[in-house]
Amino acid sequence: MNTVPITGGDFSCVLTRLAREPAVLVRVARTQGSVPRETGAWMAVFAHDTVGTVGGGHLEWTAERRARELLGQPGARTSTQRVPLGPSLGQCCGGVVHLDWEPVSAADVPALRRRWLAECTPVALFGGGHVGRALVQALLPLPFGVRWVDSRDGVFPADLPPQVQTEHSDPVHRAVADLAPGSRVLVMSFSHAEDLDTVAACLARRRARGDLPFVGLIGSRSKWATFRHRLAERGWTAAELDGITCPIGVPGIVGKAPAVIAASVAAQLLALPTSAPAGPVVACPRAETPSGMPA
Predict the structure, then answer these.
(1) What's the DSSP call for residue 185?
(2) In the predicted model, is pLDDT for residue 279 greater than 60?
(3) Which of 43, 142, 213, 260 is 20 to 30 A from residue 70's alpha carbon, by CA?
(4) pTM for this entry
(5) In what order do the strands lie in the sheet with 79-84?
(6) Which of 77, 94, 112, 89 is nearest to 31 (CA)?
């Protein structure tokens, strides 16, 4: 099976449908120059509709037509085509897209699920409250895999998609030790004490292994000032503490509704480098307390 990544989008709906009907998975395998979508963008073409997009316009129309032709050919195999957008399709982008067409069915679901989840950027979310729930919903259609941790029983909703894994951990900060390397960490538990211990555990993980590129804490500047003082008393250096982002979210978005905070934080995660190094991270300036939590 081809190893082109499957990036972005809630691919779980495609996997569910494949149990009932076959499709052709169209993916951007490679690009040159100016093109409408990035490598890994996908579209699943079923008999009567499609899920996802490889860029729209004439490119997508011709890709969909070819996919439907393959659906009618038993035994069709994966193929790749080089598509110059200007000369062949008249699109003003002018670049070149290499498209893969891969016929898939129920038998391919396990391998597709593994490939898709392997391409998701890991996010560790500590806290199952209102903002945590809103953030999970905001991240579902984006290229993130979420490990969602809380110390309380019964806080997680049922029927979560496969890219969200829940974990009960008491104490909650114990889960930091075995997070996936490269995890983006967001701390927003129901308790300031839990938040403090979780941030301290992240600092310890960074000192020992240096593999958590982003650690963000929900709250106000005054909350962080208090936390910073307490963490300094525990022996963390100024440089290490400078690596914690608090408040979290995109500058200029100051609403405190859970959905607004979630959108702001999701945008902040998308803006991070794909392979961001651990170490000092400049906190985003915020004029308001994004979390609505006590300072």
Answers:
(1) E
(2) no
(3) 142
(4) 0.84
(5) 50-52, 42-45, 23-32, 96-104, 79-84
(6) 94
Site of tokens 């008491």:
170
| DSSP for residue 30 | E
Which pLDDT score is estimated for 4? Answer: 74
- Gap between the Cα atoms of 18 and 22, Å rounded: 6
- At 189, the pLDDT band (50, 70, 90 cuts) reads very high
Which tens digits make up the pLDDT trace of 55-89? 888 889 999 999 999 998 988 888 898 988 876 55
Token pair 């499957």 is found at 6
| Percentage of residues of the chain with pLDDT beyond 90 | 72
Q: Cis (ω within 30 of 0) for the bond into 247?
A: yes
> In the structure encoding, which two tokens stand for residue 103, read together?
């016929």
Write out the H or E segment, with its range, that includes residue 264. Answer: helix 258-271
pLDDT in tens, 219-269: 999 999 999 999 999 999 999 999 999 999 999 998 899 999 999 999 999
Helices (H) and strands (E) in the chain, counts: 9, 11
For residue 72, give the nearest of 45, 98, 99 by alpha carbon.
45
Phi/psi of residue 249, nearest 5 degrees:
115, 170
Q: Which of 37, 59, 38, 44 minimizes the C-alpha distance to 11?
A: 44
Apex 162 CA angle, 10 and 275, nearest 5: 70
Helix (H) or strand (E) holding 239, with range, is helix 238-242
